[in-house]
Amino acid sequence: MRTIDWVDGGIELVDQTRLPHEFLRLRVTDPDALVDAVQRLAVRGAPALGVAGALGVALLATSTDSSEEVRSGARRLRDARPTAVNLSWGVDRALRQLDRGAQAVLTEALAVRDEDIAASVAMGENGAATLRELLPGRSIRAMTVCNAGGLAAVERGTALSVVQTLHEQGRLGHTLVTETRPLLQGARLTAWELRRMGAEHSVIVDSAGPFLLNRDYADAVLVGADRIAANGDTANKVGSFSLALAARQAGVPFLVVAPESSIDPETPGGDDIAVEERDASEVVAFDGIATAPEGTGALNPAFDVTPAELITAIVTENRVVRPGRGTPPVGTVPERPQDR
Ligand SMILES: CSC[C@@H](O)[C@@H](O)C(=O)COP(=O)(O)O
């Protein structure tokens, strides 16, 4: 299953707002409809946003001859969500080909898609190997945050690709899935993916995570990333930081699994990362039903930032960085495809 793809001159994506009740594909041929799909999380997850950004520029370039129109549409798409660096990375990578024509833009966007598929496989292997080294000789019980699976990428995903690889290797124990308030990406999407995989799992409320780590219910916490600063501080779905603190207290490894495209060498540290603030209605209501007295305000940061010193390893498709353990800093990015 591909979460997002280019089909017959348009973008097709799985509408993630409808899962787990309904598996529906959306066809997007209007660039502004793509911006809307990104903002209401019909397509979401950092790697999928990178591919959406690149394919969105291809959609623009193949639908108009005006490079000014392409550039202004690309700006709207780039700004649709602020935290996942992959979105602007994907947009910019495709846009750099504009002077060579629409076909060159599309070819680059398809390369972004194909590299994402390959990166997910490699992250799964690198993450599973890292865990086998950290936790030799036993099956591994993972705890996850949000959805970092195939639905957050083109296929397989990041942190959940590690879970899938362990499962395929017969090394996966019971997985605990934090439900991930307020939009329940864990309960709705990760549980859906684990069920399709045939992997044993239970959903837990977010606030039970730290306690269950301390009671030895999991051997590793595996999370994705929306933006990794040059010093290794990592923005991911809100709730990741509290699990990292608890994992440190419990002596449980905390792994960040993300493609190189999630690393932002231009952002020095976590304090410099823009964290998306979403609408209060997501917190004080669910599915249109109020969960707090009318007029109640809410703070709704979509992400938090985990300091590098709480991260056991950052696993990408190319390397495993161990902050504070003598590996080069994560911001020293090896050559990336767009630099070639
Ligand atoms: C492989 S995805 C990594 C992150 O993008 C994921 O954990 C996450 O925080 C997604 O947030 P979302 O708001 O659902 O786009």
TrEMBL record:
<dbReference type="InterPro" id="IPR005251">
    <property type="entry name" value="IF-M1Pi"/>
</dbReference>
<dbReference type="Pfam" id="PF01008">
    <property type="entry name" value="IF-2B"/>
</dbReference>
<feature type="binding site">
    <location>
        <begin position="44"/>
        <end position="46"/>
    </location>
    <ligand>
        <name>substrate</name>
    </ligand>
</feature>
<protein>
    <recommendedName>
        <fullName>Methylthioribose-1-phosphate isomerase</fullName>
        <ecNumber>5.3.1.23</ecNumber>
    </recommendedName>
</protein>
<keyword id="KW-0028">Amino-acid biosynthesis</keyword>
<dbReference type="InterPro" id="IPR037171">
    <property type="entry name" value="NagB/RpiA_transferase-like"/>
</dbReference>
<feature type="site" description="Transition state stabilizer">
    <location>
        <position position="146"/>
    </location>
</feature>
<dbReference type="InterPro" id="IPR042529">
    <property type="entry name" value="IF_2B-like_C"/>
</dbReference>
<feature type="binding site">
    <location>
        <position position="81"/>
    </location>
    <ligand>
        <name>substrate</name>
    </ligand>
</feature>
<dbReference type="InterPro" id="IPR027363">
    <property type="entry name" value="M1Pi_N"/>
</dbReference>
<keyword id="KW-0486">Methionine biosynthesis</keyword>
<dbReference type="GO" id="GO:0019509">
    <property type="term" value="P:L-methionine salvage from methylthioadenosine"/>
</dbReference>
<dbReference type="InterPro" id="IPR000649">
    <property type="entry name" value="IF-2B-related"/>
</dbReference>
<comment type="pathway">
    <text>Amino-acid biosynthesis; L-methionine biosynthesis via salvage pathway; L-methionine from S-methyl-5-thio-alpha-D-ribose 1-phosphate: step 1/6.</text>
</comment>
<keyword id="KW-0413">Isomerase</keyword>
<feature type="binding site">
    <location>
        <position position="185"/>
    </location>
    <ligand>
        <name>substrate</name>
    </ligand>
</feature>
<feature type="binding site">
    <location>
        <begin position="236"/>
        <end position="237"/>
    </location>
    <ligand>
        <name>substrate</name>
    </ligand>
</feature>
<dbReference type="GO" id="GO:0046523">
    <property type="term" value="F:S-methyl-5-thioribose-1-phosphate isomerase activity"/>
</dbReference>
<comment type="similarity">
    <text>Belongs to the EIF-2B alpha/beta/delta subunits family. MtnA subfamily.</text>
</comment>
<comment type="function">
    <text>Catalyzes the interconversion of methylthioribose-1-phosphate (MTR-1-P) into methylthioribulose-1-phosphate (MTRu-1-P).</text>
</comment>
<dbReference type="InterPro" id="IPR011559">
    <property type="entry name" value="Initiation_fac_2B_a/b/d"/>
</dbReference>
<feature type="active site" description="Proton donor">
    <location>
        <position position="226"/>
    </location>
</feature>
